[in-house]
Amino acid sequence: MKRRLPWEAAGVWSSARRAFQGPGPERELLVQSLKAAGAAALAWAVAGWWWKAPMALMAPWAAVVLVQATVYRSLRSAVQHVLVVTAGTAIAAATAALTHNTMVAMVIALPLTVLLGNYSRFGSQGLYAASTALFVLAYQSSTPADVGHRVMETLLGACIGVAVNALILPPLHTRGLDRLQADIPRRSARLLQDMADSVSTGYDIEQAEEWHTRARYLGGAVTELRTAHSWHEESLRLNPARHLRRTTPARRAFEEDLHWAHITDHLEALARTLWEAAGTRPGFDLPSQPALDILAELLCSAAEVCRADAALYAAEEDEKDEETVTAARGRHLHEAHLAMERLKDLLRSGRGTGTPGLGALNAESQRLLVELAEVAGSPYAPR
Questions:
Q1: CA 122 to CA 119: how far, in whole Å?
Q2: For the chain, does the N or the C end have fewer beta carbons within 10 angstroms?
Q3: Cβ-contact 338, 217 below 8 angstroms
Q4: CA torsion 182→186→188→189, rounded to 10°?
Q5: Each residue of 298-316: pLDDT tens digit?
């Protein structure tokens, strides 16, 4: 425990420093935290100082928990929160009126409110059903007037929380999506280039295993990309700032990013085949040197296609640069297609090699090029 404290302190200090140094998740978290605190203070000022409500605590309590990660989530949670608090208050007040005993009322009300809170439609707000019932019973505020005040103050706090989140720097989750959409092609290009550099000159099992591991990690990045798309789409819903903020670099649609899911799958299969051909699988020998030379050319050209796709983000604001990068991508894709045809001719001719490894490499390389062509917008029709 003592050893962990300095490490935890260093991590907290590093996060705090990044929050003040520039944009990033740390700053976004800081902004949302300050907004939640501000919403709670405003709700308290309105309910306790101006309205002089008898249960003013309910307003800041609702406001602070409803400054959510997206405007849509704030609004949805506000509806859930008001319904849950109203239900918890009503159940507690009814049991108190029927039993006239706090202990007995708790025994009846708490199981009901806990079950109600576990209803999936209430999401994370469900836990407030039981806590609201506890407040009502513990402070014996179960008269119709008390119930009305509690509901109205909760509604006031919910409105303030949603309004603060929607009108003051409304959260728009684009950074993670931008990073991943450029990072996955860039990492794919590095992996393909490393494979191309070593395939023709000779590689060993350790290198092939490392390629396979990196390809699997790329699959994890694609999963993160799917999550980032979900957050991005949700953050745009009901967000008044969606048309006010700059949206460069351009973002691919989710359907287009599905091609990268297939590309990483083919990269993993390609790396696994090279790993098996290096000696991990009996009867799965390396193809002949001419085949490996052609494969190296194909992988090198495919790496350039991926690199050009990543470079399109940097060229987005300059149309001339974008045209240059697009033309280069098309040229490298054509070169990869030519290498693919040569590899298929070699397989068909059976010159010097007929191993299962070459057939597997041929199939995965072709699938890879089909997906890269789809990304480039020029479908590849293998002959």
A1: 6
A2: N
A3: no
A4: 140
A5: 999 999 999 998 887 655 5
